[in-house]
Structures are given as C-alpha cells and as structure tokens.
Amino acid sequence: MRSLFKVLPVCSLVFVCFNLHAQNYPVYNSYYINPYLYNPAEAATEFTYIFLNLRQQWMGIEGAPRLTTANFNTLLNESRAGVGVKLSSYSRGILTSSDISLTYAYGLLLSQKSTLFFGLSGGVITNTIDAEGIDDPAVQSYLANNIQPTANFGLLFRSASGINLGITLPQLFTPKFNSAASFESTAVSPVDNIIGTLYYRKKVEGKIVSKRKKGVRAKVKTKEAYAPLEFYLMYKYAKAGNSQLEVMTKLNASENFWLGAGYRLGYGFTGSLGFSYGKFLMAYSYELGGQPEPGFSQGTHEVQLGLRIGEARKFKRTAPMLRSTIKTTSESHVARFQQTIDDPDKIAATDNSKKKYYVVIRSFGDFTSADEFKKKLIDQKYNANVFYYEKDRKYHVHVLETSKQSEANDEAKNLKNYTKLKDAKVLTVTTTEK
After folding, report:
1. pLDDT digits (tens, 9 = 90+) for 139-150
2. Structural domain contains residue 314
3. Is residue 195 part of a domain?
C-alpha cells in the first residue's frame, strides 16, 4: 500500500507533463539565427552550420525547465535539396525527454527570385523519470517501453525581396504515453499545433567604399551582408487553447554585431545580442517574464553557439535568358578612339546628364587586345563590343549596354552564376548631352 501511494503521485505528474509535451513544444529565442529549430524547410541553408543551443528557464529554481539542442543542416551543393539532423534534451522536474530526428528539404523554383521549400523530419523520442526509491514494476515497465515516433513538416516561401513566409506542423504524431509498449497507440494529429512565421531578412550586395590600408587609400568592394533591420512575426496555434503571438526586431549594427528585442504574448519582453567572428557566432538572450510571480527566479537565459563550415553552397537554378547573347548575326564595331556622336540636328538645346550601365567582361589598355577578346566572345554567341572610356583610358569589352541599372546588375549576376564569364561586372558611365 505504501508503494502504491508513492507511485500514484509520480504517475499523475508524468501524465500531466506528457500531455503538456504532446500539446506544446520547446521555446527558442534565437530562432532568428537558426530558424531550422522550428521549421524543417529551413534546413537548406546557404552554408553548412552546426549549432548548439542552451536554454535555462527560471534560473535559480531547482527542477526548472532546461533545454539543450544541437543541430546540423546544409544545402547539398549544386542541388535543390537540403539535409539536417537535430538532437535535443528537454528536462522539467522529474521528467526528461530526449529526441533525435533527420530532415530532408527540397526547394521548388517559382521564379528566378522566389522559391518554395518543403521539409520533413522524422525520428524517435524517449522519456525518462527520476523515480529514485520507487521499485514498482509498473513504473519500471513504463521506463523500458516509452519510445515513440516524432515527426514534423514545414513549408517556406523565400523571396529575393527579403520576405519569408513559413508554416510548420511541429507534431505530426500525438503519442499516448500511458501505453504499455512503444508505438502501440500512436495517433496522427498534425493540426493540433501549427506555427506560422513571417519575417523580413534581405541580403544586399556589397558596396564600393574607400578604405585606407597601410597608408594607402583605395576603393574596395564590401562583402554581401543583410539589411540593417530585420523583422519577425510568429504565431503558435495550439488546440489546447494556449496559442501565442510573438514579434521581434533585429538591428545589424555592423557586419559582426547585432541587437534584438521582442515581445511574446503571455511572457513579456525579451532582449538579445550577438556577434560573429570569422566562421564562429554567438548569441545571448534574456527574458524576465513568464514567471509564476514577480521575483520568482532570475529570469530565463539562452545561449546559442554556431559554426559555419566550408564555402557557400549553390542552389541549382534554371539558367535564365541572357540579354547579352547574340539575337542577330550583325556585328558592330567601335573605332579605336571614337565614341558615338549624335546627329547635331537632334541635340537638345538644354544640357542633360544620363547614366549608362555596361556589363563589362574584361578591360584592356590597348584596342588590339580588346578587339581580339571581343571576337572570341562573339564566337561564343555573346553580343560583345568595345567601349573606350576616357576617364580611365581603358578599352572595356562589354556584352550589354542599358540605361537600367537593375538590368545590368541582373545580367552580371546571371553571367557569373550560369556561364564561364565569372569576371562580369557593371561599369557606370555618366554622359552629358548638350
């Protein structure tokens, strides 16, 4: 009888914890750095990453929830697929849940600037109870037979404009933990919990800036970086009735340092900061809310460590139609020291400055070399021509001339990504018509 009185409270607590776990899922503050934590469709990242996330809720309280998560994810180079693996250990009170899952993600091209990713994760979850001093056979039998399947599914719409829209079904299975055997009464209930995300995170091209190095000032191009401001909106729907809304903004103060602030409905405000150094990054977040009563604990702390491995992976895209390829067989020539001169009868009476954008493949100091290289490009079916620029006194072999900067930038990028002309660049020329 005494053994029964010992077992009943433990089983009751286990039942409550398991049901809560079946309806909910771990909370992360650093998902803006590692969105794969919530959505398996985010596994196809530009770089290969390894992350370690440590979260301690209600610091200073014995038995408070503690979460440890490690994950690896990457895009398979020159493909549209990504893979990942995630391991986590979630302790609260006498209960600890541990799981491992594998992920496969695939991207479907909607256009040259938008992609729809699908992601599916599957694995197993097991639970342990700190039942020290309880020798009841029923409890021991449960501990030996509690392996259950776990799976989640996600969608992600990603646009070059920086808009990202995601939907995640974090629990495709609702395990019945009061079963006597593993997998015996697993139920499928994919829409009991749903996570929706909307965020803005835009990558911008490097800029030409003037920097001084070793006493010499020179113009250099900075690396690609994210826009200074990022915005995140997340809604977690739960059939159990504890749905939650969360908003967050991130300020990229520099290429290597950022600050973040957010608000989670029912919990309050969160603050975060982080930095990157080379291939290593670290983020820290703190939240004071979410406590049973003010002053209950020292708040919730979360640390995320990341390591970027290797070079950037390339997502396989359908080669676009290039504007610089030859549409006709005609070949035009430019005199060695002559630029196009407008008909005097068509010259406007007022001054007018215009910008032209040239997609330049290579530049030369003499016309003969430039002309020979132009002929090679024409043989490769490019609409090549030579332009002499008086400002730098060079002959520029270009394959596109346009008055639209966006066209020139897109063409240069497409030539780099889909052809052997990896040195394509945009030359901006301001001309004055009188």
Report:
1. 565 555 578 899
2. no
3. yes
